[in-house]
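Technical note accompanying the year-one report. For the benefit of new consortium partners, we illustrate the data format agreed upon in the data management plan: each record pairs a sequence with a structure-token string. No post-processing was applied to the example shown here.
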Amino acid sequence: MDFTYWADSKPNDLGKEVMKKVSRFNDWCERTGMTSLWARSIRMWHGLDGSGGWANSAAITYGGQKGENVLMRVNHYRSIGQGIYSLVTSTRPSFAPRATNNDPESIAQIPVAANVLDWYLGEGGIEVKAKRSLEMTLPLGWTWHEMSWDPNAGEPYTKDDTGNVVYKGDVRCDSHLPFNVAYDIDARLGDSDWVAVRRTENKWELAALFPEQRDLILSSSGQVDPSDEALQVFDNLTKNAGDSDRISVWHFYHKKTRAMPNGRYAIIVSSRTIFDAPLPY
């Protein structure tokens, strides 16, 4: 019997193992009714009928055998949510950096740190993404806010030994819907040792970033799993989105634990691992 920890699988097998966990998470969402709840809430948030009827808040429609019924909706649901959103966002976040040491050099860096934080909050787009996360949380109950480091962002810095351009890198901020982040459903929310995050990325950009996996990436389809009802409603995606340039890319993160001392970070496309490395954080 093989007792190898699935997260410590070989790169060729890791993608399939991660997608098994994603499928298990999706099944759990279906069984608990979360998928249908999210889909219903999203429809109502956008003024549509929660059960899929014709009534909506954008136009007056007619129903009945002879069109004798006037169907209309007043979107109180989103109006109340927008009121909560305005109350929460009326005060802009403010950070107060503190030096861990008391020497003059460390204290002198406090204004620099404050300016950097303020720049990333505004010009860096973190505040916009945080507001986006809040807006999505109102109809969905919770969302995920991902902060990561993108080594391929920023300005060109130098070239490596093979002649490839090395960039300075930059902070990346993403907002994710709850069904786009799979985790260990047997652990308490926030205590999972691993997460798998779904992003939609341009396959041509991804192929340029990983030229050795170009054929795999470009042959991947933008098709959405038909069972992801909530995903289709919110992202306005259909079962026939195969001609889209954007594909689903899963980013797998595993904490540094006794079972995985170095952690693990992998990028997965079509159940295949295209990048694998120790957790960089």
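Partners are asked to follow this layout when depositing records. The longest strand covers residues 194-202.
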